């Protein structure tokens, strides 16, 4: 299985971020995992020096839909406007919200490749990498 270079987790729940990091580390699918707590922090991360000077390209973003400060939909709307060199190769939403409205709204964002339900499992992570990065 191919190992991803860098993954960005965007979720306002620190416990969820910790658990997602553990799942990704256990699955051994990424060389580096970065974490931010909301969409605003994610945009700052993507347009900041740390991302621009990173030695590893950003392969994957996993973003929660329901967050405080800036939710996933607002993040995705602004993400669409970023130049390609600020973007990841793939974006997936990772959320406990699987409402019809949310799933329909995600169709407005062409950068979003898919939707994963929380909690993230090792099987989901490995399937995502095998399906979209092989």
TrEMBL record:
InterPro entries: CheY-like_superfamily, Sig_transdc_resp-reg_receiver, TCS_response_regulator. Gene3D superfamilies: 3.40.50.2300. SUPFAM superfamilies: CheY-like. Residues 6-133 form the Response regulatory domain. It holds the Pfam family Response_reg. It comes from the Bacteria. This is Response regulator. It comes from Nibribacter koreensis. The lineage of its organism: Bacteria, Pseudomonadati, Bacteroidota, Cytophagia, Cytophagales.
């Amino acid at each position: 299985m191919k190992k991803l270079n860098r993954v960005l987790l965007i979720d306002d729940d620190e416990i969820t971020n910790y658990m997602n990091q553990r799942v990704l580390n256990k699955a051994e699918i990424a060389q580096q995992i970065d974490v931010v707590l909301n969409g605003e922090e994610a945009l700052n991360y993507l347009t900041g020096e740390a991302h621009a000077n990173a030695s590893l390209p950003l392969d994957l973003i996993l973003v929660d839909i329901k967050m405080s400060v800036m939710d996933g939909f607002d993040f995705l709307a602004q993400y669409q406007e970023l130049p390609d060199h600020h973007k990841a190769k793939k974006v997936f939403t990772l959320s406990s919200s699987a409402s019809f409205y949310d799933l329909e709204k995600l169709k407005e964002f062409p950068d979003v490749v898919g939707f994963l339900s929380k909690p993230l499992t090792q099987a989901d992570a490995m399937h995502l990498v095998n399906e979209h990065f092989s």
